[in-house]
Design a protein that fits this description.
Length: 94
């Protein structure tokens, strides 16, 4: 039985393919990333000015903080793919 050997590739041919491989993998990863990120719209928040200076001391009893609205509850960056946090996390900005 006479089996033919497959044609031998030149080293330059193999080096060329190896050079293209990372670019091909990056293009596939980029397409996958773009598909997953498309539905994500970053949240925005209006940071209002205060009518009087506030003291940055960690206390929320300053009248300016009473007027500031709360943000929406924070979520994991992966959204609903992760479990809901045990504790509520939100912020006020002035």
């Amino acid at each position: 039985m006479d089996l033919q050997k497959p044609p031998r590739q030149s080293p330059a041919f193999l080096v060329g393919w190896l050079a293209l491989l990372p670019a091909m993998l990056l293009a596939a990863d980029l397409a996958d990333w773009q598909e997953r990120m498309q539905p994500i719209t970053p949240r925005s928040y209006v940071c209002r000015r205060t009518s009087a200076p506030i003291v940055i001391d960690g206390r929320l009893d300053d009248p300016a903080w009473a007027e500031a609205p709360w943000t929406e509850d924070f979520l994991d960056i992966q959204g609903t793919a992760k479990p809901k946090p045990r504790l509520r996390t939100r912020a006020k900005m002035l």
